[in-house]
């Protein structure tokens, strides 16, 4: 059985414990432990062994430190037993003497790196390496010493606390850590204290909570504090290690200061012609607080100009801006005295007992004189004038004065942009308005002009005033019919029947309204046919005196009527009413008023006859168009007396095309060279422009130059604006000139066919072989 023995020189305490246990247990020479195998039958008895060893960290010396010794009961003292060590650090950190079982630490150990090592020991036969007993596991613990100082991992710290806080107000909490063993000894037991920052702040020794130590600390006096905190191990006793950190504590602002004006009296001056809303001065109430706590509002609480001035707060500068609300007048009031107040917007209830958080100041404003424009006696003028007023008559007057002390003379004028017709004049000295041209109320009832007043000493001082002139009515227009009336009288009408009701109008506008009088001309008073009757609604009824009117006898009657108004003097006019005799139905509905209606078939109206006549005309037009189109379709497109003879011309895309190309061309014109100067009109289109035919060359019976002929026709077609290209002649290219093979066309040939020799066509290849045979056959036939 193996014993684990610790060197007494290293750990006396461990040795004492070992001796004590050996006496109690009474087994073996070393410290033994009883394992579970002891309870198993047929096994050798094992003694109790101590399974832990200790070694101090950071121990250094000239020799390796003896940690302990292994010993087995099977060792009789001979050298046949060999001790083997395995596990954490075996062979490197820990080395065992295989003969004596002594374990030495070869390196300097650090508990903070590794606190314990687990190893396995075993006794084997030195010769056979056979284990003499099962392996035993034990632990070597590194015993801590105070070799690490406390550290503030999160430092330095920043904290805030409201100013004026009571004693004991929580500020912040700091934390330090110690890498030493918190279980063994006091190496990791920390105590906190303040090195700098007293007497303003305190710290709890064990919790490290920082609190205020003085009441009513004022931010305005000192805003920031620098506190040094120390953490010491070994419970703060002598010999302990320590670490420090800094805490920057800032006092936050509270509203504990009222606003205060920099001066109690302010003086401002302002010109009387200052624009409304214009700032005239600034006042400032200073507040030692900051942010929202320093914001103030301004008000005018007293003074003789509370309705003349206003004060607002500048959000950026916190100034009070005084502005003008109403116009100032130096001549009326030359100075004002105001009392303004500045008050905090946000008040802290905790400090409300400290006094009112507001302040007042006096503001004196002096109004200075300015050269003001003239002032009219009224902002607007309304004048009335009769439309028959005489030229140059005075219709009204405007007045104005200079409000300044100097009182400059005023000159008046009319803004001609408002009186383009120049109907009015004004006296420049006294402002009397006179009539320049006649007025007509029926044309223009209102005239709106602008009068301009200018200071004679300073022409830049100008004022304007609107003047409305109303033209009053006089009875200068005679009444007349409201419209051109034409009455219709039925042949079968009855005596006393109302033929027409007429009304009258008058351009004048009497105050009591219109009242018209109607009468017939004196010579028509005893009119045998018609009479008149005045109605209550100011209209007139025309009545027939008898029946039996006839269109054949008299178709139209003219009835002059005199219309008079009730004006002073009264005006009258004569209007003639046209009465037409018409044929009516039994219900009195007018059907026809013409004498020609008698010749119409019975039961057939004029409208029906017109419809029938229109249908007949439409049918005739359709027939004429149909015949014209038929004739136009049967006519040829080109007018020509002789028969149109056509033939095919084969166009070759390349020389030697042969019979494969069979595109037809119309060369009717080429067949008649003598008609080159003739102009054949087109009938399929109607030209927009009249094209004058070009005078060509004189007809030549023989030897026509086809090249020249084609070029002439091509030129005419290109310059003809009346029609697009119609046949292939415009794209026909003259072949033969410049060609090495010459022309294959017979059009150019001016000699007879007998002069031609076509034997060479057989030499041009298979594509021209057939053409050569055709021409050869033709020559043979001629010879035959």
Automatic annotation (TrEMBL):
Cited InterPro entries: Cadherin, Cadherin-like_dom, Cadherin-like_sf, Cadherin_CS, Cadherin_Y-type_LIR, Catenin-bd_sf
Residues passing through the membrane, by range: 598-627
Region entry Disordered, spans: 740-759
Domain Cadherin, chain residue ranges per copy: 72-152, 153-261, 262-376, 377-481, 481-603
CDD domains from the UniProt entry: Cadherin_repeat (cd11304)
UniProt biased composition (Low complexity): 740-755
Keywords: Calcium, Cell adhesion, Cell membrane, Cleavage on pair of basic residues, Glycoprotein, Membrane, Metal-binding, Repeat, Signal, Transmembrane, Transmembrane helix
UniProt-listed GO biological process terms: adherens junction organization; calcium-dependent cell-cell adhesion via plasma membrane cell adhesion molecules; cell migration; cell morphogenesis; cell-cell adhesion mediated by cadherin; cell-cell junction assembly; homophilic cell adhesion via plasma membrane adhesion molecules
Lipid bilayer topology: Single-pass type I membrane protein
Localisation per UniProt entry: Cell membrane
Gene3D superfamilies: Cadherins (2.60.40.60), TCF3-CBD (Catenin binding domain) (4.10.900.10)
Pfam families: CADH_Y-type_LIR, Cadherin
A molecular function GO annotation: calcium ion binding
GO cellular component: adherens junction; axon terminus; catenin complex; synaptic cleft
Function: Cadherins are calcium-dependent cell adhesion proteins.
Name of the protein in question: Cadherin 8
């Amino acid at each position: 059985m193996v014993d684990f023995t610790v060197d007494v020189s290293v750990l006396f305490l461990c040795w004492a414990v070992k001796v004590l246990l050996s006496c109690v247990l009474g087994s073996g020479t070393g410290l033994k432990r009883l394992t579970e195998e002891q309870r198993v039958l047929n096994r050798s008895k094992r003694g109790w062994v101590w399974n832990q060893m200790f070694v101090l960290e950071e121990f250094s010396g000239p020799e390796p430190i003896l940690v302990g010794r292994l010993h087995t009961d099977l060792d009789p003292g001979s050298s046949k037993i060999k001790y083997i060590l395995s596990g954490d650090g075996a062979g490197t950190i820990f080395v065992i003497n295989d003969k004596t079982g002594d374990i030495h630490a070869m390196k300097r150990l650090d508990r903070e790196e590794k606190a314990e090592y687990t190893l396995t020991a075993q006794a084997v036969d030195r010769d056979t390496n056979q284990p003499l007993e099962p392996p035993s596991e034990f632990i070597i613990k590194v015993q801590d010493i105070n070799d690490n100082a406390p550290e503030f991992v999160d430092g330095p710290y920043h904290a805030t606390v409201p100013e004026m806080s009571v004693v004991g107000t929580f500020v912040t909490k700091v934390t330090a850590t110690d890498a030493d063993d918190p279980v063994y000894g006091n190496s990791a037991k920390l105590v906190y204290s303040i090195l700098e920052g007293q007497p303003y702040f305190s710290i709890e020794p064990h919790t490290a909570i920082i609190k205020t130590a003085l009441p009513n600390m004022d931010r305005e006096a000192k805003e920031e504090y620098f506190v040094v905190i120390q953490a010491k191990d070994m419970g703060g006793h002598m010999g302990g290690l320590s670490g420090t950190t800094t805490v920057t504590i800032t006092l936050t602002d509270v509203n504990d200061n009222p606003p205060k004006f920099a001066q109690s009296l302010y003086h401002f001056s302002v010109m009387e012609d200052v624009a409304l809303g214009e700032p005239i001065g600034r006042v400032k109430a200073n507040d030692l607080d900051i942010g929202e706590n320093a914001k103030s509002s301004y008000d005018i609480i007293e003074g003789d100009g509370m309705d003349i001035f206003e004060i607002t707060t500048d959000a950026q500068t916190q100034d009070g801006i005084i502005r003008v609300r109403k116009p100032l007048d130096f001549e009326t009031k030359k100075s004002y005295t105001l009392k303004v107040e500045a008050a905090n917007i946000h008040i802290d209830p905790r400090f409300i007992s400290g006094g009112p958080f507001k302040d007042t100041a006096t503001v004196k404003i002096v109004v200075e004189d300015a050269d003001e424009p003239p002032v009219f006696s009224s902002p607007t003028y309304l004048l009335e004038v009769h439309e028959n007023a005489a030229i140059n008559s005075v219709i009204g007057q405007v007045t104005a004065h200079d409000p300044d002390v100097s009182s400059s003379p005023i000159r008046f004028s009319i803004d001609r942009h408002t009186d383009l017709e120049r109907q009015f004049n004004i006296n420049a000295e006294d402002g009397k308005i006179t009539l320049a041209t006649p007025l007509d109320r029926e044309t223009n009832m209102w005239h709106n002009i602008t009068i301009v007043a200018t200071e004679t000493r300073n022409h830049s001082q100008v004022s304007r005033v609107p003047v409305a002139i109303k033209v009053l009515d006089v009875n200068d227009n005679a009444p007349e019919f409201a419209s051109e009336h034409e009455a219709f009288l039925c042949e079968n009408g009855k005596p006393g029947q109302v033929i027409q009701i007429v009304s009258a109008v008058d351009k004048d506008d009497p105050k009591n309204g219109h009242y018209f009088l109607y009468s017939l001309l004196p010579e028509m008073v005893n009119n045998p046919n018609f009479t008149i009757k005045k109605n209550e609604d100011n209209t007139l009824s025309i009545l027939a005196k008898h029946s039996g009117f006839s269109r054949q006898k008299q178709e139209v009657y003219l009835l002059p009527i005199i219309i008079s108004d009730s004006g002073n003097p009264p005006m009258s006019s004569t209007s003639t009413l046209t009465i037409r005799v018409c044929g009516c139905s039994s219900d009195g509905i007018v059907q026809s008023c013409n004498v020609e209606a008698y010749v119409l078939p019975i039961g057939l109206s004029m409208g029906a006859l017109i419809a029938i006549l229109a249908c007949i005309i439409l049918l005739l037009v359709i027939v004429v168009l149909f015949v014209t189109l038929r004739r136009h379709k049967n006519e040829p497109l080109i007018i020509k007396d002789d028969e149109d003879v056509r033939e095919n011309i084969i166009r070759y895309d390349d020389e030697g095309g042969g019979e494969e190309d069979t595109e037809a061309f119309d060369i009717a014109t080429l067949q008649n060279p003598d008609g080159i100067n003739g102009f054949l009109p087109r009938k399929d289109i109607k030209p927009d422009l009249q094209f004058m035919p070009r005078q060509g060359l004189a007809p030549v019976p023989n030897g026509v130059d086809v090249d020249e002929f084609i070029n002439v026709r091509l030129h005419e077609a290109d310059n003809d604006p009346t029609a697009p290209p119609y046949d292939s002649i415009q794209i026909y290219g003259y072949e033969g000139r410049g060609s090495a093979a010459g022309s294959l066309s017979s059009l150019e040939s001016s000699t007879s066919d007998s002069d031609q020799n076509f034997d060479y066509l057989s030499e041009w290849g298979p594509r021209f072989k057939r053409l050569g045979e055709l021409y050869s056959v033709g020559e043979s036939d001629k010879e035959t």
